[in-house]
Each structure stands twice: as C-alpha cells, then as structure tokens.
Amino acid sequence: MLVPFLIFHLDMDAFYASIEMRDRPELKDVPLIVGGDSRRGVVATANYKAREFGIHSAQPIQVAKRKCPDVVIVPPRMSVYAGVSRQIMEVFESFSPTIEPLSLDEAFLDMTHEHGQDPLELAKALQAAVLEATQLTCSIGIGPNKFLAKLCSDLKKPNGITQVPAGLEKEFIAPLPVRKLWGVGAKTEERLLSLGYLTIGDVAAADLSVLRDQLGQNLSQHLHNLAHAIDHRPINPERERKSVGSETTFEKDLRTPREVAKALQPHALDVARVLAKKELKAGGVRVKIRYTQGFVSQTRQRTITPTQDAETLWKEAMLLLDSFEYNSPIRLVGLTGYDLVDANAPEQLRLFKF
C-alpha cells in the first residue's frame, strides 16, 4: 500500500522583528520595523503590532511612518539572523532527513517517514524544539503536498498549526481567495478577479479549455491543478543532513562540570538513537552550553572515530568539559554529532598499525 506524503511547511513568525524583540525586551510591546531608516528605505519585516497599522514587508519606510508615526525602526542585523537560521535548520535536521529551505526563516520538511504518528503532535514537538533553541515562535502547515502545507502555515499566525483534513483537501481550500494560490501575485489576482474568479473553488469549477483561452496554457494548468489540491513537486533538499543534536533548557541552573556531565547523558542517548534510526555515524561531537546571563553560548567540539554508540559519544563529550567556563550559572546544555557518514559504508583501512 502506498503511504501518503506528509509535508510540513514551517514559517517563523515575523522572523527579523522577533529576534530584535527577543534581544531587546523593551521593544516587545511597541510597533517595530526592521529596515533602513532613509528616504528610500523599505520595510524588511514588521512585528504584529506594527501590522495592525497596515505596515507590511516591502513597504516604503516613509509610508510606514505615516501610517504609524510612533513606530520604532531598527537596522537589520543579517549576520545575527543567519546565525539563528542555522540553529533552526539544525532543529529541522533532528526531525527530518529531507529538508528544503526556502529562505532564512522557512522550509519544507518531508515527514512521511513518521507515517502512523499524529501529525499535530509532531508539529507541536517541532514548535517546542524551535522555541527552546531560539526563544522564537513559528507557524506550521501540514498537508500531503507542498502547496497545501505552505497555504496552511499562513492561516493561523502567529504560533499556529493548521492541517488539511485528509480526503477533504479540495473542499478545505475552495472558499479561500484566489490570491492564496501559489504563484498568484497582484497582477494575476487582478486578472482573475476581473474574469469572475473570486475563490479557489471558482478556479476549480472552471472549464480548463476556457481557462487556457483566458490565461494561457502554462498558467491555466498550474492554477487548475492547485485549485484541485494537486501538486506533484517533490521536496528538493538544498543541503545534506550535517548533524544530529539534542539539548535541554533547565528550570534550575547548573553550575559544575559534574552536573553538566550528568545532564549530557540523555542527550547522548537521543543522538545515538537518531543516528541508528537514520543509519548514520558521527565523525565529530560538539557540546554546547548556554549561560543564564545574556543567553551567551559556548561550544566546543572534537573529531572522533565515526560512531553511533551513546556511551562513546558521551565519553568523547566529557573530554571537552574542562575547556568551558563555570563562573556563571548554566541554563542549557546540548550534545551534537556532526560530520555524518553512512553507517554501512566500509571503514577506511589504516596504512600502519602500531
């Protein structure tokens, strides 16, 4: 029996603005724009309070200021956003072997390998893992293909989860406006509305030959397929799985190497379990510590003989602990296996044996 595809689309909520609010709590309750504050500057992103005034991405800064004179504008910190994006992608890699990043803050995950599990519970676990790693929220759409998953991720923002009901995909999307069809921008939307297509259901009900005459061969076929909930595009990974990690934020701070060592044991087990499931071995081990004050993190790593054994991973991690500082309380520890190789590949022979 064919197993239906299970695709997640994860989209971070107001990504740049959320990072600025995380790092500067005084910005949390004010309308906020990330962008260049100049005559020709544009909005890179806006928090949800700013959006209440009609401010949105790609809008000229001067227009945004007129809509909300009290809006706070901060310049973008792209290196910081890229670093957080890497953290997010590492979380994704612990959930799925097949990931297609679309930008710094969104990606598709093929979750078909989790067939039989509750998709909503998987999505909640993914949200929790992203929140723990970054202190940021995300929204997730769940469906049998990329179009439906991406459409759903935008329906309950922020921090929402939406799943298309199985077997009712076409009915679910029918009442939505035509602009929700992937690839429909302002000009195409205007064209569709002028032709009397107000909803996705209107496009689905249209005669394909009539659509071809009105919109042309390629666009008509594309929109007709999507309106019938059909999308055969596969997930195209742009990066190979590079690491498997596990980490925990503690309610009570840790203070000694001994406490950290004990805390790392379950993470070694988690990493080993994922490596075995994916038939991979790690050729390196990395330990991360995050301090309570300022959320400052330190990492240490070492190259090891490729392994998927929990005890070996833990013992190798122990060799790194003396290089950390313990003069500040610790709120998070994590262990990652990296430089992943196929567990079934033959080991390279040594030239000499002493």
UniProtKB/TrEMBL annotation:
Domain UmuC: 7-185
Enzyme class: transferase
Example GO molecular function: magnesium ion binding
PANTHER family found in the cross-reference section: DNA POLYMERASE KAPPA, DNA REPAIR POLYMERASE UMUC / TRANSFERASE FAMILY MEMBER
Named cofactor requirement(s): Mg(2+)
GO biological process: DNA repair; DNA-templated DNA replication; error-prone translesion synthesis; SOS response
Catalytic activity: DNA(n) + a 2'-deoxyribonucleoside 5'-triphosphate = DNA(n+1) + diphosphate
Domain of life: Bacteria
InterPro entries (UniProt xref): DNA/RNA_pol_sf, DNA_pol_Y-fam_lit_finger_sf, DNA_pol_Y-fam_little_finger, DNA_polymerase-Y, DNApol_IV, PolY_HhH_motif, Rev_trsase/Diguanyl_cyclase, UmuC
Record text on cofactor binding: Binds 2 magnesium ions per subunit.
Gene expressing this chain: dinB
Protein location: Cytoplasm
Annotated active site: E106
Binding sites annotated in the UniProt record for Mg(2+): D11, D105
Residues the UniProt record annotates as site (Substrate discrimination): Y16
PROSITE patterns: UMUC
Pfam families recorded: IMS, IMS_C, IMS_HHH
Source species: Microvenator marinus
Subunit architecture: Monomer.
Signal peptide: none
The protein's name: DNA polymerase IV
HAMAP family: DNApol_IV
Annotated function: Poorly processive, error-prone DNA polymerase involved in untargeted mutagenesis. Copies undamaged DNA at stalled replication forks, which arise in vivo from mismatched or misaligned primer ends. These misaligned primers can be extended by PolIV. Exhibits no 3'-5' exonuclease (proofreading) activity. May be involved in translesional synthesis, in conjunction with the beta clamp from PolIII.
SUPFAM superfamilies: DNA/RNA polymerases, Lesion bypass DNA polymerase (Y-family), little finger domain
Entry keywords, A to Z: Cytoplasm, DNA damage, DNA repair, DNA replication, DNA-binding, DNA-directed DNA polymerase, Magnesium, Metal-binding, Mutator protein, Nucleotidyltransferase, Transferase
E.C. no: 2.7.7.7
